[in-house]
Automatic annotation (TrEMBL):
Keywords: Calcium. The keyword Calcium applies. It comes from Mytilus galloprovincialis (Mediterranean mussel). This is EF-hand domain-containing protein. InterPro entries: EF-hand-dom_pair, EF_Hand_1_Ca_BS.
Length: 98
């Protein structure tokens, strides 16, 4: 499972420097917006405030817009991992953006 968490965190680290930052957020949001358009599930994009809130709620675990290393984020995910409840925890992360 750690490998999958690391892949997810690496996707969020757009510049691949090992730190998930607000600059990565902007680059990743543009990529995710293209994916959202391809999937077509949500008809309109999330506004900038909603995108920032999504990142603050699900990614920046040290506080709003505070950078986190890929390894610290993976460690956080491992700490909350419960196979029986994973769908309930991860579904809002994905559906919140798309």
């Amino acid at each position: 499972m750690r490998h999958k968490w690391h892949q997810w965190a690496s996707l969020l680290d757009a510049d691949q420097d090992g730190i998930i930052s607000s600059d990565d957020m902007k680059k990743t949001n543009a990529t995710l917006e293209q994916l959202r358009l391809a999937i077509g599930d949500r008809r309109t994009a999330l506004n900038a405030d909603a995108q920032t809130k999504w990142w603050d709620d699900h990614i920046f675990k040290r506080g709003a817009d505070k950078h986190i290393s890929v390894e610290d984020y993976v460690a956080y995910l491992e700490g909350i991992y419960n196979p029986a409840d994973m769908g309930n925890k991860m579904r809002p992360v994905i559906t919140g953006f798309f």
